[in-house]
Write a structure and sequence with these properties.
Pathway: Cofactor biosynthesis; thiamine diphosphate biosynthesis; thiamine diphosphate from thiamine phosphate: step 1/1. Catalyzes the ATP-dependent phosphorylation of thiamine-monophosphate (TMP) to form thiamine-pyrophosphate (TPP), the active form of vitamin B1. The chain has 344 residues and is α+β, with helices and mostly antiparallel strands. The protein has ten helices and twelve strands. The strands form three sheets. A six-stranded mixed sheet has the order 8-10-7-11-9-12. Strands 3-6-4-5 form a four-stranded mixed sheet, with helices on one face. Strands 1-2 form a two-stranded antiparallel ribbon. α3 links the parallel β4 and β5.
Length: 344
């Protein structure tokens, strides 16, 4: 039997590990990599940032929508974005995989390659984890990062008068999800559906790729910290929901500018118009882009690639309680403010 035809049940745990461990990168801060009882990662200033997240098959990804490389990339991206949102530089990942016995070994190897495709160029090591069998694929990822001597940038320290800015894209993953839901991934049938809808194939490919392989602006997190950002967070569950979290943590309110959001809305219209959906809703409520939302004190030069989107105001302004997110001074009219893991 060729290796490409084998499934997880055909190998022992040691054999499965041997099939993909050589594909994983070693990070710049890794002193003892995978293969021992635990990895050892350098923490030059005595602290490290740590975060964890999970991807569950048919909840966060569908295998027929993309490749194993896509899932591996996405598993890394969503965790590295959280590290960058603290103003830190990502250093390492530890990953536990739950695999049904019928999972092809080639899929597991592809997952490892996807991790390496994102992690290796930025010096992040994949430094261990665990394997288990189960009914569906689950990837549990823990990411670490170094603050390089800087203070962490928190959600709770935005102040009235600060400028709210964003780095990355808004609504692109939501557009990609809508296209995948409507027409699937690639192939002649998909292309025919897209043609009937009036969505150009190249446009659809671009947006689907953002959903399958989000590209968080990792370098923007430390850049914002060095520029004096007062608060910051990853945008994973939608602009309104995550801006609301920042506002609640800071006991303030946020007012977004529709004029500042207009370019993001326009960029989505080649998909939203043919599908009969709202580009503004995608910008406000779509998650999974994994951009960074930051606030900067008045007079601070907002570093690229951040773009101003609005302002921070004191709680009580206009009668609004802390945690409110407004659009041009009023409550935006959207079906839902963003992704909730336990809703629906």
């Amino acid at each position: 039997m060729l290796l490409m035809e084998k499934t997880v049940r055909d190998l022992s745990e040691d054999e499965l590990l041997a099939s993909f461990l050589p594909l994983l990168p070693r990070g710049r801060n890794t002193e003892v990599p995978t293969g021992d009882d635990a990895a050892v990662i350098a923490a030059p200033d005595g602290r490290y940032v740590v975060t964890t997240d999970v991807l569950v098959e048919d909840r966060h990804f569908r295998r027929h929508w993309g490749s194993a490389e896509d899932v591996g990339w996405r598993a890394a991206a969503q965790n590295l974005a959280d590290v960058a949102a603290m103003g830190a530089v990502p250093t390492s990942l530890v990953i536990s995989l739950v695999l049904p016995p019928q999972t092809p070994v080639a899929w597991v190897q592809g997952f490892a390659r996807g991790l390496a495709q994102l992690c290796e160029p930025v010096g992040v090591g994949v430094d261990g984890g665990d394997l288990s069998s189960g009914a569906q694929i689950v990837a549990a990822v823990t990411a670490h990062g170094t603050l390089q001597g800087r203070a962490p940038v928190l959600r709770s320290t935005a102040r009235p008068g600060d400028v709210l800015a964003h780095a990355g894209v808004l609504g692109h993953a939501a557009a990609g999800y809508a296209l995948l839901n409507e027409a699937g991934d690639t192939g002649p049938e998909t292309e025919a559906v897209l043609a009937d809808l009036g969505v150009e194939a190249a446009t659809a490919t671009m947006f689907r790729r953002v959903f399958l392989r989000p590209d968080p602006p990792l370098q923007a997190g430390p850049a914002a910290a060095m520029a004096g950002a007062s608060a910051m967070m990853d945008v994973s569950d939608g602009l309104l929901r995550d801006a609301g979290r920042l506002a609640r943590a800071s006991r303030s309110l946020i007012d977004l500018s529709s004029a500042a959001l207009a370019p993001a809305v326009t960029a989505l219209e080649p998909v939203s118009v043919p599908l009969g959906l709202s580009a503004l809703d995608w910008v406000l409520s779509g998650g999974e882009d994994h951009g960074l939302l930051a606030t900067f004190p008045p007079g601070t030069a907002v570093p690229p690639p951040f773009r101003p989107l609005g302002t921070v105001s004191a709680a009580g302004s206009g009668g609004h309680a802390h945690g409110a997110v407004l659009l041009d001074g009023t409550t935006p009219d959207v079906a839902r403010p963003g992704w909730d893991h336990f809703a629906g």
